Amino acid sequence: MFQNVGELLDIRKGRGIYNTYNAKSFLMRWPLDHIFVSAEFRLIAIKLGQDINSDHLPTYAKLSFEPEKAAEQQPEKPSEKQLKNAKEQAERVQL
Which pTM was predicted? Predict the structure, then answer.
């Protein structure tokens, strides 16, 4: 929901699987951690780091800021339902 409502792009999409959690078990890994960017950013490189004695693997991304190319990769607009759900969740957690 965060990605849709924020109108953000997932830099991993279309680039393979980057399993970042659970680094302790090869069979139980899945892509839990994300790097989202706005349309003004381009991915130059992405890689997983070495085990740092955590249950997550570090993820490194090299980005370039190219606002003149933002129109080339626009995220999907959130639906009314997604916006409504986000608003309801935000209202529930307000202090």
Answer: 0.69
Q: Which value, to the nearest 10 degrees, does the dihedral of the CA atoms of residues 76, 69, 10, 59 take? A: -170
| CA angle 40–42–48, rounded 5-degree value | 135
Instruction: Give the CA distances from residue 10 to residues 25, 54, 68, 95, in Å, rounded to whole numbers and listed in that order.
Output: 25, 23, 19, 30
Distance, in Å, from the CA atom of 45 to the CA atom of 12, rounded to the nearest integer, reads 10
Q: Between 46 and 95, where is the model more confident? A: 46
Domain ranges within the chain, ordered by starting residue: 8-74
Q: How, if at all, do strands 41-48 and 59-65 pair?
A: antiparallel
Tell me phi and psi for residue 61, to 5 degrees. Answer: -135, 135
DSSP 7-20: T-EETTTTS-----
Q: Report the phi/psi class of residue 14: left, alpha or beta, with left for phi > 0 and alpha for psi in -120 to 50.
A: left
